[in-house]
Amino acid sequence: QSVLTQPPSVSAAPGQKVTISCSGSSSNIGSTYVSWYQQLPGTAPKLLIYENNKRPSGIPDRFSGSKSGTSATLGITGLQTGDEADYYCGTWDNSLSAYVFGTGTKVTAL
Amino acid sequence: EVHVVESGGGLVQAGGSLRLSCAASGFTFSSDWMSWVRQAPGKGLEWVANIKQDGSEKYYVDSVKGRFTISRDNAKNSLYLQMNSLRAEDTAVYYCAKTGQSGSLDYWGQGTLVTVSS
Asked: Could you tell me which residues are beta bridge partners of residue B24?
């Protein structure tokens, strides 16, 4: 059972915006950096956001991240069919001394 | 360009052992933490273990403690996961991931499938 909670799915029409929440606690999100990962169907996960809101080279600025207290949010603007994937938040948990992932969110472009 | 490539997966009976390897290139392997992450069929991501640059610190998810051992050989730019006393619930694709300075898993391999038959 994951310690980070995400909605199972979100959807929007192409071109619209979606947001994905990631809820944790003071021992993880509340005290460490949050990362976000994108997993396209049949492929390995890829880093999308690190240190709460930074994008690795090559990630378009349509993807954004934010953190407030013990929650984090991933935003995708100008949704494209190519963005259809599973998205996971992740962070270190100081109480568990373990890296933890969110439950995962499936994004669908209607 | 950073590359990590896993190998060693396969079919094994419950109670058996398997050793996964990860070959790294394109970065200074000895300067980075490394991690193993797994994904059971149709399920989400589960972090398994990580190891410090010099191997002096190792952390594991509770479900594998005492059964799995992570190790590295910096001279060979390689990461390993020795898996003993395997269970059906260990069936998954196992990914090797480079760990960035802030703890993010910034480069992933393509994964290797481990199937444990009961």
From this structure: B4
- Token pair, residue B85, equals 């006393």
Backbone angles phi, psi at B62, to 5 degrees: -55, -35
The reply to whether A100 touches chain B by the CB within 8 Å rule is yes
Burial A14-31 (b: 16+ CB within 10 A, else e): eeeebebebbbeebbbee
Would an 8 Å CB–CB cutoff place A40 in contact with chain B? no
3-state secondary structure labels for all residues of A88-105: EEEEEECCCCEEEEECCE
Which pair of tokens denotes residue A34?
């949050």
Q: Which uninterrupted H or E stretch holds A110? A: none
How many angstroms separate the CA atoms of B62 and B45, rounded? 15
At CB < 8 Å, which residues of chain B contact A? 35, 37, 44-47, 50, 59-62, 95, 100, 102-111
CA–CA min distance A55, chain B (Å): 11
Full pLDDT tens readout for chain B, 118 residues:
999 999 999 999 999 999 999 999 999 999 999 999 999 999 999 999 999 999 999 999 999 999 999 999 999 999 999 999 999 999 999 999 999 989 999 999 999 999 999 8
Q: Which residues sit opposite B67 in a β-bridge?
A: none
- Alpha helices by DSSP H, chain B: none
The whole-angstrom separation of Cα A18 and Cα B20 is 38
Q: How far is CA A88 from the centre of its chain?
A: 5
